[in-house]
Write a structure and sequence with these properties.
Two copies of one chain form a homodimer.
Chain A: H1 2-13, H2 28-33, E1 40-42, E2 48-53, E3 58-63, H3 69-80, E4 88-93, E5 97-101, E6 123-124, E7 132-134, E8 144-148, E9 151-156, E10 159-161, E11 168-171, E12 185-188, E13 202-208, H4 211-214, E14 233-240, E15 252-255, H5 260-270, E16 293-295
Antiparallel strand pairs in A: 1-15, 2-3, 2-14, 3-13, 4-5, 4-14, 5-12, 6-10, 7-8, 8-9, 9-10, 11-12, 11-13, 15-16
C-alpha cells in the first residue's frame, strides 16, 4: 500500500476530483472548477482591502458593505487615510484570532468616522430585495442560517448577521455601547467562535493570503498578545483595491449564492459522493461551506 | 479610549475573569480555574503520547481507548517500537490538517498491529456503563451530541463517535475497507471537518503544544504537502508517557464531564455572562466547548 497510501490520503483529506468523463462532479472542488461563468460574480474593487505585511506578503480582505455598512464605511476611510501603515499584527491566539491595529493605542483616528452601535451587529432582511438561499441544517447558534448576496448569514426573525467563521474579519471594540470604529481588526484562525456573533461586528473575510495570518507564531502574552522578545508583524500598508494603480488591482469573483451551481455545491458539501466517503454526513455547518471565491479569469 | 481599548479587547476576545469577590464565576475560564479538585480526573500515562519534534518542542496527545480501542492499541504498539522516530510532519493544509508519519511510505510497520475496519469508526454505547452528559443544542451532523468519559461524542441511536474538532487526532487511511493502522496521523488545525466523522477514525486530541503544529508553515503542494524547498519537520521521538522515566512523565487532568462544574461550564459556554457579552448565544457547538484539561496540580 505504498503508492495507494498517498493516493488514499489525498482522497481522505481533501476535495480531490474523483470523476470519469461525463459524470457529474463528485466533489465540491470539482464542481466549483467546472461551474459555468454565469455562476460567478465579480467582487468590486471598492470591497477589497489589500494588506501588505513585513516581507511583502499580501492578505486580501473582502468587505461586506451590504451587511456592515457603517463599519465598512469607516474601514474605507481608515484605508484612504493610510491609517494602518506602520501599525502591526500584535496578537495571535491559538484556535481563536489574529489581530492587528495600533499596538500603542495612541495613534489619532482620521476625521469622518461614523458612530457605530449594537444596532450594526445585525440588519433586517425585509424590504432589501436580498434573496436568501437557506441552509436546511440545524445550527446551535441561530434559528435559521443561509446565504445572502455571496455571504453566509445566521438569521432570527427578520434579523440577519454575518457569522464568525474561519477567516472572517471582525471589529475589536470597547465595552458596550461602543461598537468599535473598525481600526482594530481580527480574523478567526480556528473553530468558529460563534458566541461572538451579534456581540461584535463582522465586516468581511480574508479571501487570499490567509496562511500569512493563520501560521504566525502564537503570542505568549495574555490572550496571545506578543510580549517581550516576540516581534509584532509590521503592516506596511492597507489599501482599498480601487485606490491602487490599475495594474496592481487584484480581481476576484465569488460564486453567486442564488445559482444552481451553488445549490449543487451545498448538496455535495453535505453529502460527499467521492470514493473515499463511506458515509455522507447528511448535513453541513454554516461555517463549513465556504462561499467559493476565485481569481477573475 | 486608550487604556480601555486594551481592556475591552481583553474582554472582547477571550474568556477573562470579570468577577467580584463572592460572585459566581462569570466566564468559562474563571469557572474552570475555581472548580474543586473532585471535578478533575487524572489522565493515565498509558493514554498520553509525547511527540518531540525538531528543536525539542513537545506536543502531547491524549488517546481515547474507550472510543477507539483498536487504533489506540496500534498507536501504543507503534510508539513502543519507536516507529515514528525519524519520520516527519510533512503536510500542513490551511484550515484543515497538519499530518505526520513516514513521508517515504516505505518504512516497515512493526509486528502485532490489529486489523481495523469501518466498524471502528463508531462504537455502541449500550451496556458500557458510560454516563452521557447531553449537549442540548442542535448539530448539523448528528441527531444527538454530548460528552462521555471526558470526551465529546456525536450520537445516532446507540452509536457514538468522536467528532473531528480542532486539535483532535485522526488516522489517515487508504480507500475502504482499509481503516488505517494508526501510523499516519493528522490533527485538525481549522474549522471542524465533521464530514470526516465516521469516515476516519478519531483516536485522541492534542492537549499540550498544539501551537507547534497549528502555526507551522502551510505546504505549497497539493493538499498542503511540503514540496521542493519546504522542509518537513523531523519527529525526533514519539513515546507513551508510561514508557518515559518517571521524572519525564507529564501529568494532566481532565474535567469530569459528569461533574456539576462541567455542567456549569457548558451553561456558561452557551450563555456568556461577563460584561462584554450583550447577547448570550443561547447555545454552543459540540466543537466549541472543549473539555477542560490542566496540568496535574
Amino acid at each position: 500500500m505504498i503508492r495507494p497510501l498517498r493516493i488514499a490520503l489525498t482522497a481522505a483529506l481533501a476535495s480531490v476530483t474523483v470523476q470519469a468523463a461525463g459524470e457529474p462532479p463528485a466533489t465540491p472542488a470539482a464542481l466549483v472548477a467546472s461551474s459555468p461563468a454565469d455562476a460567478w460574480a465579480d467582487i468590486s474593487a471598492e470591497d477589497l482591502i489589500v494588506m501588505t505585511i513585513d516581507g511583502g506578503a499580501q492578505v486580501i480582505v473582502q468587505l461586506a458593505p451590504a451587511m456592515a455598512p457603517r463599519h465598512v464605511a469607516n474601514i474605507r476611510t481608515l484605508a484612504r487615510a493610510h491609517w494602518w501603515d506602520g501599525t502591526s499584527i500584535n496578537r495571535v491566539q491559538d484556535n481563536y484570532v489574529a489581530q492587528w491595529g495600533d499596538a500603542t493605542e495612541k495613534k489619532p483616528l482620521p476625521a469622518g468616522l461614523l458612530q457605530t452601535s449594537a444596532a450594526d451587529y445585525a440588519l433586517p432582511l425585509a424590504n432589501r430585495r436580498l434573496r436568501v438561499t437557506p441552509l436546511p441544517y440545524p445550527d446551535a447558534y441561530a434559528p435559521k442560517t443561509g446565504f445572502v448576496a455571496g455571504w453566509p448569514v445566521a438569521m432570527d426573525g427578520n434579523a440577519a448577521w454575518l457569522p464568525h467563521c474561519y477567516g472572517y474579519v471582525g471589529v475589536g471594540r470597547n465595552l458596550s455601547p461602543d461598537a468599535g470604529t473598525g481600526a482594530e481588526l481580527y480574523t478567526v484562525i480556528g473553530q468558529a467562535p460563534r458566541q461572538l456573533d451579534r456581540n461584535i461586528a463582522v465586516v468581511g473575510r480574508v479571501i487570499d493570503g490567509m496562511a500569512h495570518l493563520s501560521s504566525l507564531p502564537r503570542g505568549s502574552g495574555e490572550l496571545g498578545f506578543y510580549t517581550g522578545s516576540e516581534r509584532p508583524v509590521p503592516i506596511l500598508s492597507m489599501r482599498l483595491a480601487s485606490d491602487l494603480p490599475a495594474a496592481q488591482q487584484p480581481h476576484f469573483q465569488q460564486m453567486d449564492t442564488t445559482s444552481p451551481s451553488f445549490a449543487a455545491y451545498l448538496r455535495l458539501r453535505a453529502n460527499r459522493k467521492d470514493d473515499f466517503y463511506e458515509r455522507p454526513a447528511g448535513g453541513v455547518d454554516l461555517c463549513n461551506a465556504p462561499v467559493p471565491v476565485r481569481p477573475a479569469p
